[in-house]
Every structure is written in C-alpha cells, then in structure tokens.
Amino acid sequence: MVSSSHPRGGFDVARLDEATLSMYWRCVSLFRSVLLLLDNRSPEEALILARSLFEESLRLKELQDAGNDREVFLVGYYAEALERQEELFGPTAERLGLTEDASDVVESARRQKGQLENYRKRKNIGKRKKFRTVRVAATKQNRRKDLWIYLLSHHMVHGGEPAYIYRRHNVGEKAIALYSNTNDPHALAGVGAFAARSVSHALYAAAGIFGWEISPELRELVNELAQRINGT
C-alpha cells in the first residue's frame, strides 16, 4: 500500500520541508519493519517500532494542520535537532572520554544554528514553535485508543511485567514456560492495526502537505483496512 502512495519521479520540496519528507519516509520504513517483526511472531518488538511510527504520524498531521505556519514548527524542529547534536557529539562525548576535543563539532552546530536563525529572519518566519506532546496531540487528533497502546509500548521498550505477558504461560502448578515468540492472534492483530492506522494517518497528512493525489483504489484499500480494524 505505502510503496504506491508517493510520486514515482522527482518533485520540488521547500528547504525546511526536507524534514517533513524525512518524517514520512521514516513512517514508511518503520511500517515495513513492523510487518517483518509481526511475520516473525514478535508483536512486542514490533510495538517498539510502532511507537515511533505513532509519534511521527502525529507530527505530520500537526504540520498539515499548521498550513502556512508549517515553517514555524520546522524551524523549531531543526533548531532542537542541532542543539541535541551539539550536546551529544560535543560536551557529552568529552565527559565520557570519547574525544578529547569536540570544539569542531560544537562550532559546526552553532554555525548551522546561526544560519537557521538568519533564514528565519530573512523569510520573516515567526518565532519557533514546539510540537504538542504526544498526549495532547493524540487527544486533539481523536486517537485516544492509540494513545493507550502507545503508553503500553513504553513497557515493551523499558521492560516490566507487561513486556512478557504474552510469552509466559503456566504449564503446571509449579512450572511456567517462556517462549521466544508470541502466537496470540489478538496481540499480533492489535499491534498490526495500531501500526496500520498510524501509517494511514501519515500518508494522508503527507499527501495533504505535498499535494499528492491519492488514487481511488488506494483510498478504497485504506477504507477497507479501517473497516476491518474497527470490526465494521
């Protein structure tokens, strides 16, 4: 479905929208990886990736809703990325003894931040805005059910009892069996549906942003998928 939902040839993208396009392609990549893990009966691991897919789909929808103000969010997105890059490859790397001198990395990040700020002023882009938190964005976009699954996914990332619940079974009064795969159809279907909803949201958001035309056949497929997921 996803591979046929984007233009086959090249197309123009505004400089800041390179990040938007990268978000969409990351959604595509994550969804494909989720499918591979589900095919291997590993819904817990698939949910770890679907968690990131959910986050990206929320951001894409927020960018679509922003309309002409999209650049305000993207300036903030790039600025925060540069700040994290400066800290990770600069002071943090030095503190951990991975490098003796990271001044070149720090200088490069700061130079790029200066160029970004000059671009913002030259294009008369307003002060940068941050994306909503996952909780707020999911609620505003009417994805509360997916938010619950997203919260569950934290246990798959960090461990804890919910991370093992489908792979641990009682096999006697005093014995349990631990499995490396999960055959529970509800777990497999649930994670698959969660990921499918997210990639569908990402597709429609990207199409709205870049002006892609979604074919009637693809729309029908997405609608059929939604009906099956919702049990209607």
Report a brief summary of the structure:
By secondary structure, the chain is mainly α.
Report on this structure:
The chain has 232 residues and is mainly alpha-helical. It is built from 8 helices and 2 strands; from the N terminus they run ααααααββαα. Strand 1 and strand 2 form a beta hairpin. The protein is globular, with a radius of gyration of 21 Å. The mean pLDDT is 88.
Write the layout of secondary structure elements.
Elements: H1 18-39, H2 43-66, H3 70-95, H4 103-122, H5 134-140, H6 144-158, E1 168-172, E2 175-178, H7 185-210, H8 216-230
Antiparallel strand pairs: 1-2
Helix pairs in contact: 1-2, 1-7, 2-6, 2-7, 3-4, 7-8
Overall morphology:
globular
> How many domain modules?
1
Indicate the radius of gyration in whole angstroms.
21 Å
- Terminus-to-terminus distance: 21 Å
What are the segments in which pLDDT stays under 50 over at least 5 consecutive residues? none
- Average pLDDT rating: 88
**Beta content:** under 5%
Count of beta strands: 2
Annotation field: number of helices:
8
